[in-house]
Amino acid sequence: MPRRHPETSTVEHLVIVGNGMAGHRLVEALLARTERPARITVIGAEQAPAYNRILLSPLLAGEMQREALTLRSAEWYAEQGIELILGERVEKIDCDARTLSTDAGRRLDYDRLVLATGSNPARPPVPGLELPGVHVFRDLHDADALARAAESGRNAVVIGGGLLGLEAAEGLRKRGMQVSLLQRDDRLMNRQLDLTAARLLENELRGRGLDIHTDAQLERLEADAEGQVCAVLLADGTRLAADCVVVAIGIVPNAELGRVAGLEVNRGVIVDEWLTTSDPAIHALGECCEHRGNLYGLVEPIWRQVEVLAERLCLDHDHADDEDAQGYVEKPTATKLKVSGISLYAFGPTEAEPDHEVLSYRDPQQGNYRRLLLRGGRLEGAVLYGDTASGPWYFEQALAGVDLTACRTALLLGAADAQALLDDALNESPHSPAKEAA
Ligand SMILES: Cc1cc2nc3c(=O)[nH]c(=O)nc-3n(C[C@H](O)[C@H](O)[C@H](O)COP(=O)(O)OP(=O)(O)OC[C@H]3O[C@@H](n4cnc5c(N)ncnc54)[C@H](O)[C@@H]3O)c2cc1C
């Protein structure tokens, strides 16, 4: 029986379902606070304790060792007085009785429950997708299976030209496979990049040996005499040899547990700004939840959800009456690509609207491209390819809604030059601290 922590919130027994990135981060956030639930139990379906899923891409590419991915060991959980149950899947929740049961027949009572069950890879409805040799790229098991496939096979086809598909394709190429990448849209990373940046990326990857097909319409997958996948067929008649196929077309929230428990579920488990579901004793966060119609696929908003929920679970008072309490609010996120040798940074709309002012800079020799979208002097979107050092500064200015008119001439030169002009303009202002002191 885990020991009871001396300083506790009013939550007696907190059970967290899912020992992935959100579930683990919540544990860390609870431990960082002076008051924490008396008893914490974490149940994870994977065999391994929480690891950094983001680093599966460099792991597949052979750029990182498995051990470097582990966030905390099972021993660490024990030392914190947290019961960690791994390799068991929660199958059923009885909201009235406040109990849950796992596929190993374990039954647990809870006082509060957090669903952090992540998402599942989406699968296109095409014939042949169930064949052996067809993979997804979501967990350690998938990364191992892909590394093994790369040892025995020569040809791989990756379906999906978004972040995950590109990282999987590069990983397999680095492991010596001939990789074809299929993208349904007219460009790679169509949710983040404008056409120019997407073409720069495409050219770079083609130069490295990736066989890229944009506007690709998937028709079916073919099996060989042993029933193993051997080819991918496109609607235009193209036939691509494939010893291994990776499906990376997106994710679907893993909301099934919430659905069978009778919680309100749309695409994800619906939560309010306190990450509370339709049952006040159950919360959800991360990729399994849906907040005001938004779903999640990057960690940045999830980290902010974790902070809100940790605060709630530790204090456990009614935030509706607390004017200082800050619920979860959506904020824009920026995207980076983790393919070594390629730097990309993007946020905001990919296409300019009629009232956007577009500033762009391109240096083909250095392989640099920047395109900024402004409205009324304020930055709304940026795409940076090559030198991305100023990306976070642009993002900061956009989030803060700073009027960048004073540094417009230096905006494309980068953060340092633009900030210097902004500072000059501030000092010139009649309300500047320097002027007021004088
Ligand atoms: C290869 C790859 C690269 C990525 N790169 C980036 C990146 O560069 N930047 C970025 O921001 N994001 C990246 N992501 C996305 C990021 O990893 C996810 O947003 C994040 O992991 C979501 O956290 P989560 O806890 O909601 O889900 P997960 O981390 O998937 O954790 C969910 C956990 O719950 C477990 N589970 C599910 N159902 C049950 C059940 N019934 N009972 C018990 N346990 C259950 C699952 O087994 C899993 O371990 C990447 C993802 C992948 C796969």
Descriptive overview:
With 438 residues, this protein is an alpha/beta fold. The chain has three domains: 178 residues, 3-Layer(bba) Sandwich (FAD/NAD(P)-binding domain), CATH 3.50.50; 116 residues, FAD/NAD(P)-binding domain (3-Layer(bba) Sandwich); 95 residues, Enolase-like, domain 1 (2-Layer Sandwich), CATH 3.30.390. Helices cover 26% and strands 25% of the residues. It contains eleven helices and 25 strands. The strands form seven sheets. The protein has a five-stranded parallel β-sheet. Strands 9-16-10-11-12 form a five-stranded parallel β-sheet. Strand 23 and strand 24 form a beta hairpin. Helix 1 packs across helix 8. The radius of gyration is 24 Å and the shape is globular. It starts with 12 loop residues before the first strand and ends with a helix. 40% of the residues are buried. The N terminus is likely disordered. Bound molecules: flavin-adenine dinucleotide. The site of flavin-adenine dinucleotide has 33 residues, from helix 1, strand 2, helix 2 and helix 8.
